[in-house]
From TrEMBL:
GO molecular function, one term: metal ion binding
Protein name: Heavy-metal-associated domain-containing protein
Sequence ranges assigned to domain HMA in this UniProt record: 40-106
Top-level division of the source organism's lineage: Bacteria
InterPro entries recorded: HMA_dom, HMA_dom_sf
Amino acid sequence: MKKVILSMVVIIAIVFTSCKNEGKKDSNTNNIEASSKMAMKEISFGVRGNCGMCKNTIEKATNNVEGVATANWDKDKKQIKVSFDEGKTDVISIHKAIAASGYDTEKVEGDLNAYEGLPGCCKYDHSMEMNQ
Ligand SMILES: [Cu+2]
């Protein structure tokens, strides 16, 4: 009987300590997430484009930049909102990545070869106003 009680105490002790450790791990991850959110910078700038397919291409190009957390291009405003980790990338790298996919930004002209490869509906007007 004593042995049974003893082994139950041991099991309870093991379960208790492992739960305690898990709790510690969770709070550590939360701290890391919170601090990386603090380092995020949000910017918005003009990007030319026409339609939903343009939106996909522009946002995909932006998200492929390491350090970019979110990208949201507004078809009507011709403007993108980007949040990114300043420790991993910078504003001009994001402009360049979008331009490489064929789209004009405020700062960098879209790559013409990539532009030629865009579907017909996406061949936007290069004199289109941005940040409408
Ligand atoms: Cu398009």
